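testing teh design pipeline on a random one, pls ignore if ur not involved
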């Protein structure tokens, strides 16, 4: 797919300029005609939407659009639409009041798209880095059902919960991360400076050193002599890991491994399943068909392994199987959740029970996150104790032995 700059006229005869992505110029022309716009000129462009006319200085001054910006946008759109403000006027007001220059450009492009005849969901689809597939699909459902302001409110609460969970996990991981980084730095300093100094002292005695001391001295010599190679290897492994995770297979394998990690694996799994249940409840309550809703939800769970399981549920429903049977076959839900899904299918209140499942997982995630530091601290203490023991045996044991020899003499 390539970008094409176009000039066109809308139904009022106004000249409109913009950039559209398409397979070729003919496809872009068809897209413009379908939106009620008559193309005047179409030419290839190397820049994407919103990038035309921007220099390197302007690109450096662009602000990042954060989750808080999207949350505020959702809440403000709900308030304005509920008050009866037209969409175009609402977007114009938000553009003028926004303190984020990147968000202002997105809103300007959305206004131009609406002015050219596009729907709001189609205008948002032009900015996938800001509005993901789930967000766009929900807005499209809101347009079709006339519940757009309600959809924006539900999206706001959904994003608020997502941000709250991520902030709690980051806060819980802050102390363990600091301790681990401090231990790594300490090991580096000991290898580069402390052990070499002791090695010179030991060499003056011309005595046989204990095994642990010989291992520490050998590792220290290797670190001192080859530290550029070690840093290059670490950087290469990190870069290679990122490239591997960026591939579909690598992403799937890494997401599967994350669910099995000690301590944090259960938190990641429950948070992902909570996101699935809440997203499904939101799409179901908004009138999205089951098959389409499962397809949209699979794109926002942020875990390729769970997403594949959800896709298998969707395929099973397409074949005529029940959600319960396909959920059992997926192997990712607990018996309690499967029982609630069974009751939801029998009573026709699956969306309400999915909401309860989401809340149940959320309570478990909140509890485990609050106790995350308490679970990690014993592991850190044991690791720190082992490190101190190795250093004590390797560095001070020879001094102790040499001291005893001197006393005997």
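output:
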């Amino acid at each position: 797919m390539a970008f094409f700059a176009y000039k066109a006229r809308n139904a009022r005869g106004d000249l409109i300029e913009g950039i559209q992505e398409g397979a070729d110029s003919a496809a872009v022309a068809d897209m413009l005609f379908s939106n009620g716009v008559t193309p005047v000129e179409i030419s290839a462009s190397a820049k994407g939407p919103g990038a035309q006319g921007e220099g390197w200085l302007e690109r450096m001054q662009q602000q990042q659009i954060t989750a808080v910006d999207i949350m505020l946008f959702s809440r403000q759109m709900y308030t304005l639409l509920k008050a009866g403000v037209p969409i175009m006027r609402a977007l114009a007001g938000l553009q003028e009041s926004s303190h984020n220059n990147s968000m202002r450009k997105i809103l300007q492009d959305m206004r131009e798209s609406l002015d050219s005849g596009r729907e709001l969901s189609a205008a948002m689809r032009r900015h996938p880095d800001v509005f993901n597939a789930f967000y766009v699909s929900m807005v499209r459902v809101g347009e079709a059902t006339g519940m757009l302001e309600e959809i924006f409110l539900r999206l706001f609460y959904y994003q608020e919960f997502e941000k709250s969970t991520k902030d709690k996990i980051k806060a819980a991981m802050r102390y363990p991360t600091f301790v681990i980084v401090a231990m790594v730095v300490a090991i580096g300093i000991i290898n580069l400076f402390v052990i070499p100094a002791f090695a010179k002292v030991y060499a003056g005695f011309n005595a046989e050193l204990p095994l642990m001391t010989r291992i520490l001295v050998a590792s220290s010599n290797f670190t001192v002599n080859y530290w550029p190679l070690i840093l290059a290897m670490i950087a290469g492994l990190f870069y290679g890991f990122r490239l591997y995770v960026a591939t579909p297979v690598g992403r799937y394998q890494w997401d599967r491994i994350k669910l099995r990690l000690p301590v944090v694996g259960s938190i990641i799994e429950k948070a992902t399943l909570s996101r699935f249940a809440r997203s499904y409840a939101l799409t179901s309550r908004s009138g999205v068909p089951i098959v389409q809703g499962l397809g949209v939800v699979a794109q926002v769970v942020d875990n390729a392994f769970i997403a594949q399981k959800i896709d298998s549920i969707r395929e099973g429903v397409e074949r005529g199987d029940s959600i319960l049977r396909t959920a059992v076959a997926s192997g990712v839900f607990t018996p309690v959740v499967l029982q609630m899904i069974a009751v939801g299918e029998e009573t026709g209140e699956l969306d309400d029970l999915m909401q309860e499942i989401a809340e149940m997982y959320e309570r478990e995630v909140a509890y485990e996150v609050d106790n995350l530091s308490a679970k990690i601290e014993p592991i850190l203490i044991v690791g720190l104790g082992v490190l101190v023991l190795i250093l004590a045996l390797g560095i001070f044991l020879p001094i102790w032995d040499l001291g005893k020899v001197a006393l005997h003499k």
